[in-house]
Request: fold
Amino acid sequence: MLSGVQPTGDIHLGNYLGALRGWVDDQHDYDCYFCLVDLHALTVPRDPAELRAKSMECANLLLAVGLDPDVCTLFLQSHVPEHTELSWLLECTASMGELRRMTQFKDKTARGGEEAARVGLFTYPVLQAADILLYDADRVPVGDDQRQHLELTRDLAMRFNKRYGKTFVVPAAAIPAAGRGARIMDLQQPTAKMSKSAESPQGVVLLLDPPKAIESKVKRAVTDAETGAGAVRYDPAAKPGVSNLLELLGLATGRAPAEVAAEYSQYGPLKADAASALVEMLRPVQQRYRELTAEPGVAEKALAQGADKAHAIASVTLHRARDAVGLVPRP
Ligand code: TYM
Reply:
């Protein structure tokens, strides 16, 4: 199993509930590789010092949510050069047309235009395919927004296998069910997904937000003007804001959103309970994060160990792919 997260901005509830929380359980059931995709972060402008700091912050946060470096393999993408080398072989497998159809590329270039976009932003999904295929992953747990990138990865693996003989395992996305974390919405703009690049920070709950900030963001969440019996119901299309709050409270307390809805008739109490459930859910993560950052060297050690383990697997797969396309082995 492999998954990844960009060590940029701050990790938010969407990342946590759509992906990271599931990884913690999965690490005991699968041979897991978790990659901090720092090379993917370079597809848009970044301050170098900030990228470095955020990469370590993100590593500490992944440890704080419960990833155990003795159980799973946690590593930085840039520490394992096989990712960029396989990416080239896959760029020579992918077509311009299929990359142009990627909605994330279209979204991310909507404002600035394609002309100014970095080439890396265009080839981003190919590097993501390399991340996955290097580890023979058959399961890739991600949020719903990564569905199209996973389809591309499967297409590239199948095309490569057909062209050069069986080389890669064809992976499948493991996406939470609707209403169970697949797509957490922005609290201020509940028809848009919660995102690191959101315009309003009020709509995004960060894992490291202090309790007061979480309470204030949840209490100001956009709902709708309906009142009276039946106003609190789970209906994402008609009531995106309320449905998102029901989903969040459900995920924090281990229940389905419709089951949560049955307990409320007004938005005020729903918001108050959602806020305190989220604060309680994040309390141990924040506590552990503070402990980890007070112990220098823990994340560095985990990443060094992870890079060695990842490299050992990735180099074998890369060798197979190089051989398949006809590259002469290094003497
Ligand atoms: P990233 O860093 O944007 O997000 C990390 C994970 O969080 C999920 N996610 C969400 N889930 C539910 N609701 C949301 N609002 C929400 N926002 C984000 C994402 O689906 C993802 O699972 N391209 C990837 C990183 C990547 C990767 C990979 C993932 C690179 N290589 C290989 C899997 C396998 C990305 O930018 O994720």
